[in-house]
Design goal:
The strands form six sheets. This protein has a nine-stranded mixed sheet with strand order 12-11-8-13-16-17-19-20-22, sandwiched between helices. Strands 2-1-3-4-5 form a five-stranded parallel sheet, sandwiched between helices. The chain is built from 15 helices and 22 strands. By secondary structure, it is of the alpha/beta class. The two termini are 28 Å apart. Bound molecules: cytidine-5'-monophosphate (C5P). The site of cytidine-5'-monophosphate (C5P) has 13 residues, from strand 16.
């Protein structure tokens, strides 16, 4: 189950060529179990047909202020009152101006005005229209009133113009929506979570390094899962091969020592640290200033020195919930248990290194002082949800506001580990 499952989302679409991209958003949210009510302005329907959204959401597309819904309550009042979130994407300069002025002359603007639901606006327009002081003032006003207004992306517009005005990519809008829902009702709202991800590169010379096969997938999924539960997330990423999630603070690093500095800065005031990064245990003792040449040598010896143990060095931070990862090729559970104790962790996620590093799927065993739980092989996205749920179940008293703690501790465990 994800943060959008069962949520009532109003998806407002206004008259921009970027409206076609939102087809994918409507589909993703619906597949994830959200109840998506699409409201289109008349101009939006010049760009994309209502039938497309109707087919994908399985619900009638709304555009008429005067159409009475089945419950007989006037549509614009009932819709917004039951919504968990309202997104307007793409939002034109005109719609933004009408929202800022409180004008409600169509179903979308009326619904927004008659709703307390959190509002997410993804503008898309000509760069000059976006930069215009009128639009900027309207956006500032909407932000001041609590709306989340995304910055458009920079790039080529539909017309041959380059500038800032493109609709943010669908994964960005979706990530921002999930973050918004999490901040509104998630169990980690108000909490600060630090996640490390990817591998590290330890340079040998300006062009070569010692690295590993980590892709960033697991750590990025963990950061997204924490974000979806309402946390403000700092994601410290070493080199990775996948795109980072939206709506987290991304800090890019390359070496273990850079990662340590970033972690030490980020954990100040944090509640939870998930150290997923595959950190190099050793680094070359020196980095050559110029490219190392082979010359006539048949052999090259590289002298390695120990890197700092980032997690192991945080024993004094007892207030911080610390979760580590153990990826091993053999004696997995024995090594994982010894790391749990040696590094003073609250929980460790054990996984088989060759099968999981760089892969899409992972089979994990969660170990803590109480014992262990073996989880099935699954995609890293759902695995990350399970890790976050397990953390919340085990450490609720340290992580959740008191009114949210479930005294029955109901989060599910799979197969117990002997
Ligand atoms: O001891 P090992 O490196 O296998 O431990 C793995 C755990 O410790 C992971 O959570 C990893 O992110 C973390 N680690 C660290 N600093 C290192 C090496 C690993 O924090 N230098």
């Amino acid at each position: 189950m994800s943060i959008v499952t069962g949520k009532r989302i109003i998806l407002g679409i206004t008259g921009s060529i970027a409206a076609y991209k939102i087809v994918e958003l409507a589909r993703n949210l619906t597949l994830d179990g959200a109840i998506v009510d699409v409201i289109m302005t008349i101009s939006a329907q010049r760009f994309v047909g209502a039938a497309t959204f109707q087919a994908l959401t399985g619900r009638p597309v709304l555009d008429d202020m005067w159409a009475l819904p089945e419950d007989g309550v006037v549509g614009h009042v009932s819709l917004g009152q039951h919504a968990d979130a309202v997104i307007i994407a793409p939002a034109t300069a005109n719609t933004i101006a009408r929202l800022a002025a409180g004008i409600c002359d169509d179903l979308l603007t009326t619904t927004v005005l008659a709703s307390n639901a959190p509002l997410l606006i993804a503008p898309a327009m000509n760069p000059l229209m976006y930069a215009h002081p009128a639009t900027q003032a309207n956006i500032a006003l909407l932000r001041q009133r609590g709306a989340t207004v995304l910055e458009p992306a920079y790039g080529r517009m539909a017309e041959p113009v380059v500038g800032r005005g493109r609709l943010p990519d669908v994964p960005v809008i979706e990530g921002e929506l999930r973050a918004l829902l999490g901040r509104t009702s998630g169990p980690l709202r108000g909490r600060r979570v630090v996640v490390t991800a990817g591998g590290t590169h330890e340079p040998l010379d300006p062009v070569r390094f010692i690295g590993n096969r980590a892709s960033g997938r697991m750590g990025y999924a963990l950061a997204a899962a924490a974000r979806d539960r309402g946390a403000s997330v700092v994601l410290i990423s070493g080199p990775a091969t996948v795109d980072p999630p939206a709506a987290v603070t991304l800090v890019r690093v390359e070496t273990a020592r850079e990662m340590q500095q970033a972690v030490l800065r980020a954990i100040d005031g944090a509640d939870l640290l998930i150290m997923n990064a595959a950190v190099a245990d050793f680094r070359p003792a020196t980095t050559a200033e110029k490219k190392i040449k082979k010359g006539d040598d048949e052999e090259l010896t590289i002298h390695l020195v120990r890197n700092p143990d980032i997690l192991g060095g945080l024993a004094q931070r007892r207030d911080l919930v610390k979760v580590g990862f153990a990826a091993e090729t053999h004696d997995l559970l024995a090594y994982a248990r010894s790391k749990l104790e040696r590094k003073g962790l609250d929980m460790i996620v054990a996984n088989e290194a060759v099968a999981s590093i760089g892969a899409d799927d992972i089979q994990m065993t969660l170990l803590d002082a109480q014992g262990g739980v073996r989880l099935p092989l699954q995609p890293k996205t759902t695995a990350a949800e399970m890790v976050l749920d397990a953390i919340l179940e085990r450490f609720a008293a340290r992580l959740c506001p008191p009114e949210q703690v479930d005294p029955t501790g109901s989060a599910g465990a799979d197969e117990p580990v002997p």
